[in-house]
Design brief:
Blueprint (H helix, E strand, L loop, with lengths): L6 H5 L7 H15 L8 H17 L2 H10 L29 H9 L8 H7 L13 E7 L1 H6 L1 E8 L6 E8 L8 E4 L15 E7 L6 E3 L2 E9 H6 L1 E7 L2 E7 L8 E4 L16 E8 L6 H13 L8
Parallel strand pairs: 1-5, 7-11
Antiparallel strand pairs: 2-3, 4-5, 6-7, 8-9, 10-11
């Protein structure tokens, strides 16, 4: 029979390692080689048994003291003070006192570990004794600019574990959701094993563009064109928002690039439905083209009155 590895070497710790370091090393190794994450891997199962055996000894102060003094002989009956039991030289039983082993595995695998590890270890590891939560599934859905702004219900098709049977699932798109955000449907992911919880379905929302509109957080931006005379003399202009047209006042002498702010005409807050962003309309001045001879003459007179020089004839 091949000689056993040193327990400290198995866990990758020094002989003077603290109980905290030993436990930390075991948690890391147990998670790596656990049969639930290495289904059908005999080497991983053997390694898992090996690290569990090492931890069962080194985590117990009394057994650790014996091991430090006598090595493996402390548990095979060949050394004085041995604590193990030997039957035919092939069987050993390791006791995990106080449920510490079960507690660690529960922490590692999200409460999915069922007790009785000592019996399972002595009779051969049984993966059917362990719960395993199902994995989350990711998907994407496309919505229009307005659907994201005001909310809507969409339907998607999802398959069962076999991938053959499909069902239509309604997905509520909350008003105000932004591009790239995800919606979680609990229990719609992959099924759990041995009573484990089903995973969730995570749906990433892709918001399509809307011509003439741009979103920045809860605010919406657009462009409004006004006549040259309105920019000079002032007046009013209609601005199209997501919530309808709004008449806005134009101050005399308004310059191109000026932003008109319309409060509460932007995107609703997902956290507080009573809160809305603003709509900002960027002013663009329309320059008249193909004007009449009389209009050109009037503009020259206007330019001279404004102190402009070198006007074209």
């Amino acid at each position: 029979m091949a000689s056993k590895k040193d327990y400290y070497e198995v866990l990758g710790v020094n002989r003077d390692a603290s109980q905290s370091d030993i436990k930390k090393a075991y948690r890391k190794m147990a998670k790596k080689y656990h049969p639930d994450t290495n289904a059908g891997n005999a080497q991983a199962e053997a390694k898992f048994k090996e690290v569990s055996e090492a931890y069962s000894v080194l985590s117990d102060p009394k057994q650790k003291k014996l091991y430090d003094q006598f090595g493996h002989a402390a548990f095979d009956g060949s050394a004085s003070g041995s604590q193990g039991r030997s039957e035919g030289g092939n069987y050993r039983e390791y006791h995990f006192e106080g449920g510490d082993m079960d507690d660690i595995l529960k922490n590692i695998f999200g409460g999915g570990f069922s007790g009785g590890f000592s019996n399972g270890f002595s009779s051969g590891f049984r993966t059917e004794d362990f719960k395993q939560n199902g994995a989350d599934v990711k998907a994407e859905i496309n919505v229009t600019f307005d659907e994201a702004a005001f909310g809507c219900d969409k339907f998607i098709r999802i398959s069962d574990a076999s991938g053959k049977n499909f069902e239509s699932v309604k997905v509520h798109i909350p008003a105000g959701i932004d591009d790239g955000k995800s919606i979680r449907l609990k229990g719609r992911g992959k099924p759990g094993v041995n009573g484990g919880k089903n995973g969730d379905l995570l749906i990433k929302v892709n918001v399509m563009k809307k011509q003439g509109f741009e979103r920045k957080g809860m605010d919406v931006y657009s462009t409004v064109k006004i006549p040259f005379t309105t920019a000079v003399l002032g007046g009013k202009t209609a601005v199209q928002t997501l919530h309808g047209k709004v008449m806005c006042k134009i101050a005399p002498g308004t310059q191109s690039g000026t932003k008109l702010r319309i409060k509460d005409k932007g995107i609703v807050s997902m956290k507080d439905p009573s809160q809305y962003g603003s709509h900002y309309a960027c002013v663009e001045i329309k320059v008249p083209q193909n004007i009449s001879v009389e209009a050109k003459q009037k503009l020259r007179e206007f330019g001279r009155l404004c102190g402009e020089e070198d006007l074209p004839s």
